[in-house]
Design goal:
With 184 residues, the chain is an alpha/beta fold. It contains 8 helices and 5 strands; from the N terminus they run E-H-E-H-H-H-E-E-H-H-H-E-H. The chain has a single domain, classed as P-loop containing nucleotide triphosphate hydrolases (Rossmann fold), CATH 3.40.50. It is 47% helix and 15% strand. InterPro entries: P-loop_NTPase.
Length: 184
Protein backbone atom coordinates (compact mmCIF):
# COMPACT_ATOMS: atom_id res chain seq x y z
CA UNK A 1 0.00 0.00 0.00
CA UNK A 2 1.40 3.42 -0.93
CA UNK A 3 2.55 5.85 1.76
CA UNK A 4 1.40 8.85 -0.28
CA UNK A 5 -1.24 9.35 -2.95
CA UNK A 6 -1.03 12.72 -4.69
CA UNK A 7 -4.12 13.76 -6.62
CA UNK A 8 -3.48 16.38 -9.29
CA UNK A 9 -6.26 18.79 -10.24
CA UNK A 10 -6.14 21.68 -12.66
CA UNK A 11 -7.52 22.85 -15.95
CA UNK A 12 -6.26 21.45 -19.26
CA UNK A 13 -2.71 22.54 -20.03
CA UNK A 14 -1.83 23.54 -16.46
CA UNK A 15 1.09 21.14 -16.03
CA UNK A 16 -0.40 18.06 -14.37
CA UNK A 17 1.50 15.82 -16.79
CA UNK A 18 4.73 17.72 -16.21
CA UNK A 19 4.36 17.36 -12.43
CA UNK A 20 3.52 13.67 -12.79
CA UNK A 21 6.55 13.03 -15.03
CA UNK A 22 8.82 14.85 -12.59
CA UNK A 23 7.51 12.76 -9.69
CA UNK A 24 7.83 9.53 -11.67
CA UNK A 25 11.42 10.31 -12.69
CA UNK A 26 12.67 11.74 -9.39
CA UNK A 27 10.62 9.88 -6.77
CA UNK A 28 9.82 6.62 -8.62
CA UNK A 29 6.11 7.40 -8.21
CA UNK A 30 3.45 5.16 -9.67
CA UNK A 31 1.02 6.82 -12.07
CA UNK A 32 -2.71 6.57 -12.60
CA UNK A 33 -4.52 8.80 -15.04
CA UNK A 34 -8.25 9.26 -14.52
CA UNK A 35 -8.85 9.44 -18.24
CA UNK A 36 -6.93 6.18 -18.89
CA UNK A 37 -10.00 4.15 -17.93
CA UNK A 38 -12.07 6.16 -20.39
CA UNK A 39 -9.31 5.95 -23.02
CA UNK A 40 -9.31 2.17 -22.72
CA UNK A 41 -13.05 2.14 -23.38
CA UNK A 42 -12.71 4.41 -26.42
CA UNK A 43 -9.87 2.27 -27.77
CA UNK A 44 -11.87 -0.92 -27.28
CA UNK A 45 -14.73 0.67 -29.21
CA UNK A 46 -12.34 1.87 -31.97
CA UNK A 47 -13.46 5.47 -31.32
CA UNK A 48 -10.95 8.30 -31.83
CA UNK A 49 -9.59 9.72 -28.59
CA UNK A 50 -10.71 13.33 -29.00
CA UNK A 51 -11.54 15.63 -26.09
CA UNK A 52 -15.18 15.56 -27.22
CA UNK A 53 -15.26 11.74 -27.16
CA UNK A 54 -13.65 11.65 -23.70
CA UNK A 55 -16.38 14.02 -22.50
CA UNK A 56 -19.11 11.87 -24.07
CA UNK A 57 -17.85 8.57 -22.64
CA UNK A 58 -17.30 10.13 -19.22
CA UNK A 59 -20.88 11.38 -19.16
CA UNK A 60 -22.29 8.05 -20.32
CA UNK A 61 -20.34 5.97 -17.78
CA UNK A 62 -21.18 8.30 -14.90
CA UNK A 63 -24.85 8.53 -15.84
CA UNK A 64 -25.23 4.77 -16.07
CA UNK A 65 -23.11 3.69 -13.10
CA UNK A 66 -23.02 6.72 -10.79
CA UNK A 67 -21.09 9.98 -10.69
CA UNK A 68 -18.44 8.52 -8.37
CA UNK A 69 -17.86 5.23 -10.22
CA UNK A 70 -14.45 6.30 -11.55
CA UNK A 71 -13.33 7.45 -8.09
CA UNK A 72 -13.74 3.94 -6.71
CA UNK A 73 -12.02 2.40 -9.74
CA UNK A 74 -9.03 4.74 -9.35
CA UNK A 75 -8.91 4.18 -5.57
CA UNK A 76 -8.72 0.42 -6.10
CA UNK A 77 -5.86 0.77 -8.56
CA UNK A 78 -4.02 3.30 -6.35
CA UNK A 79 -4.21 1.17 -3.22
CA UNK A 80 -2.89 -1.85 -5.11
CA UNK A 81 0.08 -0.03 -6.63
CA UNK A 82 3.42 -1.23 -5.20
CA UNK A 83 5.15 2.17 -5.26
CA UNK A 84 5.43 4.26 -2.08
CA UNK A 85 4.14 7.30 -3.95
CA UNK A 86 1.25 7.22 -6.41
CA UNK A 87 0.14 10.08 -8.63
CA UNK A 88 -3.53 10.30 -9.59
CA UNK A 89 -3.70 12.65 -12.56
CA UNK A 90 -6.73 14.36 -14.02
CA UNK A 91 -9.16 14.80 -11.14
CA UNK A 92 -11.97 17.05 -12.40
CA UNK A 93 -15.14 16.66 -10.33
CA UNK A 94 -15.95 16.54 -6.61
CA UNK A 95 -17.17 12.98 -7.21
CA UNK A 96 -13.68 12.03 -8.45
CA UNK A 97 -12.27 12.33 -4.93
CA UNK A 98 -15.14 10.69 -3.01
CA UNK A 99 -13.16 7.49 -2.51
CA UNK A 100 -9.73 9.15 -2.21
CA UNK A 101 -10.34 12.12 0.10
CA UNK A 102 -10.97 10.00 3.24
CA UNK A 103 -7.65 8.15 2.82
CA UNK A 104 -5.04 9.41 5.32
CA UNK A 105 -2.27 9.21 2.72
CA UNK A 106 -4.16 11.28 0.11
CA UNK A 107 -3.08 14.85 -0.71
CA UNK A 108 -4.95 16.86 -3.34
CA UNK A 109 -2.69 19.31 -5.18
CA UNK A 110 -4.07 22.03 -7.46
CA UNK A 111 -2.02 23.50 -10.28
CA UNK A 112 -2.95 27.05 -11.28
CA UNK A 113 -2.08 28.69 -14.63
CA UNK A 114 -3.52 31.57 -16.65
CA UNK A 115 -5.86 30.59 -19.51
CA UNK A 116 -3.57 32.18 -22.12
CA UNK A 117 -0.57 30.13 -21.04
CA UNK A 118 -2.62 26.93 -20.80
CA UNK A 119 -3.88 27.49 -24.38
CA UNK A 120 -0.33 28.04 -25.64
CA UNK A 121 0.94 24.89 -23.91
CA UNK A 122 -1.96 22.74 -25.14
CA UNK A 123 -1.35 23.73 -28.75
CA UNK A 124 2.33 22.81 -28.44
CA UNK A 125 1.78 19.44 -26.77
CA UNK A 126 -0.99 18.15 -29.10
CA UNK A 127 -1.95 15.47 -26.55
CA UNK A 128 -5.48 15.04 -27.92
CA UNK A 129 -6.08 14.64 -31.65
CA UNK A 130 -7.38 18.19 -32.24
CA UNK A 131 -5.30 20.27 -29.80
CA UNK A 132 -2.59 21.54 -32.15
CA UNK A 133 -5.23 23.05 -34.48
CA UNK A 134 -7.45 24.44 -31.72
CA UNK A 135 -8.55 28.08 -31.90
CA UNK A 136 -8.85 30.37 -28.86
CA UNK A 137 -12.65 30.26 -29.28
CA UNK A 138 -12.65 26.43 -29.26
CA UNK A 139 -10.40 26.45 -26.20
CA UNK A 140 -12.80 28.75 -24.36
CA UNK A 141 -15.81 26.67 -25.42
CA UNK A 142 -14.17 23.46 -24.20
CA UNK A 143 -13.53 25.16 -20.87
CA UNK A 144 -17.31 25.21 -20.43
CA UNK A 145 -17.74 21.45 -20.97
CA UNK A 146 -19.31 19.44 -18.13
CA UNK A 147 -15.93 17.83 -17.41
CA UNK A 148 -14.26 21.24 -17.05
CA UNK A 149 -16.65 23.56 -15.18
CA UNK A 150 -16.29 21.68 -11.89
CA UNK A 151 -12.48 21.86 -11.79
CA UNK A 152 -12.29 25.21 -9.89
CA UNK A 153 -14.52 23.89 -7.08
CA UNK A 154 -12.31 20.80 -6.72
CA UNK A 155 -9.20 22.99 -6.79
CA UNK A 156 -10.61 24.95 -3.84
CA UNK A 157 -10.46 21.73 -1.77
CA UNK A 158 -6.76 21.18 -2.41
CA UNK A 159 -4.24 20.70 0.36
CA UNK A 160 -1.83 22.85 -1.66
CA UNK A 161 -2.02 25.05 -4.76
CA UNK A 162 1.04 25.39 -6.98
CA UNK A 163 1.43 28.25 -9.47
CA UNK A 164 2.89 27.24 -12.84
CA UNK A 165 3.34 30.53 -14.68
CA UNK A 166 7.12 30.36 -15.14
CA UNK A 167 9.69 27.97 -16.52
CA UNK A 168 9.58 24.21 -16.31
CA UNK A 169 12.60 24.33 -14.00
CA UNK A 170 10.87 26.75 -11.60
CA UNK A 171 7.77 24.57 -11.56
CA UNK A 172 9.80 21.42 -10.87
CA UNK A 173 11.59 23.23 -8.05
CA UNK A 174 8.23 24.04 -6.47
CA UNK A 175 7.15 20.40 -6.78
CA UNK A 176 10.43 19.33 -5.16
CA UNK A 177 9.78 21.76 -2.26
CA UNK A 178 6.31 20.24 -1.83
CA UNK A 179 7.80 16.75 -1.65
CA UNK A 180 10.30 17.90 1.00
CA UNK A 181 7.38 19.32 2.97
CA UNK A 182 5.71 15.89 2.72
CA UNK A 183 8.84 14.18 4.06
CA UNK A 184 10.22 12.77 0.81
Amino acid sequence: MPKLIIGLVGQAGCGKGTAANFLKENYQAGYIRFSAILGDILESLAVTKTRENFIKISGAVRQEFGEDVLSYAVERVALNTPEDIVIVDGIRRPEDIVALEPLPQFKLVAIQVSPELRFERMKKRGEKAEESQMSWEQFQKEGQAPTEVTIPSVMSRAWKTIENEGTKEAFESTVREMMTELGF
